Amino acid sequence: MYKRPGFCEKPDAARGQRAVGHLTATVAALLATVGQADTPMEPRFAPVPVPHHVYDGGWEHFVGGGLAVLDCDGDTRPDLVAAGGSNPPILLRNTSDVGRPITFVDATPPALDLTATTGAYPFDANNDGHLDLMILRVGPDVLLHGKGDCTFAPAPLDTGDHWSTAFSATWEAGQSEPTFAIGHYVDRADPEGPFEACDTNSLWRPTPMGHAETVLEPGHCALSILFTDWARNGRPDLRMSNDRHYYIRDGQEQLWAMEATPRLYTQDDGWARHTLWGMGIATRDLDRDGRDEVYLSSMGDQRLMEQQGDGPAYKDVPFARGTAAQRPYIGDDGRPSTGWHIAFGDVQNNGRDDAFIAKGNVQQMPGNAMEDPNNLLIGMADGSFAERGDVAGVASMHRSRGAALVDLNGDGLLDLAVVNRRAPLEVWQNVTANPGTWLSVALTQPRTNTQAVGAWIEVDDGTAIQAREVTVGGGHAGGVAGPQHFGLGTAQTVKLRIRWPHGDWTDWQTVPTNQNLSLTRP
Predict the structure, then answer these.
(1) What is the pLDDT of residues 453-510, one digit of tens each?
(2) Which of 22, 298, 308, 512 matches a 20 to 30 Å C-alpha distance to 225?
(3) Is the model's pTM score more than 0.85?
């Protein structure tokens, strides 16, 4: 049986009684009129004023600009931590009330007074129930242990002096401490660089004496890495997306088999060579066939791939599915786009996943578009995707980097936050009219791996099963720790089951929709 602390069919009363703060004219007007003026189910977002923050810096910050989403004070409201590059990072504490306009205050603690930050990933590194932050830097990375009140304390960590641009973590079978990997970009110490001077990557596994490093080489300038149980056999492997701009000819995408001694999958395993200007990784079972598609952002076409068979063989399908997003869809700049962070989520709650892609020129690369709007690809009934970024109001022309689709005000709709290079951070509230039903599922475990990283959630609405893996990593230089959101169309009840990390599936249970459900492993 499930234990269900925090089972909630109604909004948290304490949250609903908090002071709302000033109601912005833009959001208030849209909230008042959206139900009358909008076409049903057409996505709509309204801009939200937030404290000023810019990701800036020279060539070492052309990449990066990650965004971490975490509840750092235990009030169930997602807070934001954005990398700053040459500026300090910022922590935006969420002060929104349920179903009301989104509000944030700058609550950056002294521990985030850091330089040269490229990204941030939340996870509970020390198993104390408070979310921590892995801060990636051009230089030594920093692990910050959360105190449960949005303040942090530096933790002992020495991962060397690298240009860090990607992170992922998991808990391997039989381990009480996390395994984590850090992806590195160009080796700044190589006098022959930067081209063909990609650094190696690092895998850190727990031992009785602490974490021990395994160097993963060759490195091909990783910009996104992700531990994922792609084969659904209970063992997460490590996927890496690499930037052809610097590896040029000898590199490729990589998938490491996490055996006792890690090894790269090869053609003998069914792995095919893929080369692209890899920026971000996102995975999701879009067609409900029990296998996750892999979506890779890049310069030019964004690479959606479908798994073939049970092995690590993938077929490119971006044009067949309408997900290539290879050029700007508004404006008169016809040069190729540059994609960064990809976030999946059902923004209309109609039961079909959508995809947001943060777009923007690296800096001033003349072969690529400068006027390069973000994409919001809406999932259609036939399995294809259609562009709605301009209709939805999120087609920003800034040079975007990290991003997140997450419910910021507890109303069951996924909102959007985006970090921009040399332009202010942007947040949009989802004000879509007549959305479908939804379910939010938060998993916790006692004593170790408190966020249940590696668990699978399946939700059956009677038509198809949505499957979701709890992971840390992917994206571009940032990620989300928190509940898993499911859009469910018209369903009023669904069946739910969990496969806890390294465990068996629970029995199916029927639960009502339109609620935040918290489940703790017995």
Answers:
(1) 999 999 999 999 999 999 999 999 999 999 999 999 999 999 999 999 999 999 999 9
(2) 308
(3) yes
CA 102/CA 414 separation, integer angstroms = 12
CA 346 to mean position of chain CA atoms: 14
10 Å Cβ neighbour count for 103? 26
User: Residue 181: which of 147, 139, 228 has the closest Cα?
Assistant: 228
How many C-beta neighbours within 10 Å does residue 260 have? 6
196-224 pLDDT, tens digit per residue, is: 999 999 999 999 989 999 999 999 999 99
The β-bridge partners of 182 are: 167, 202
Helix (H, G, I), strand (E, B) or coil at 337: coil
CA nearest neighbour of 486 among 285, 189, 234, 280: 285
Residue 170, Cβ density class (10 Å: 0-12 exposed, 13-18 middle, ≥19 buried): buried
Residue 314 backbone phi and psi in degrees, to 5: -130, 145
pLDDT of 18 > 60? The answer is: no
What are the DSSP calls for 443-510, one per residue? EE-SSSSTT-TT-EEEEE-SS-EEEEE--EE-BSSB-B-SPEEEEEET-SEEEEEEE-TTSPBPPPEE
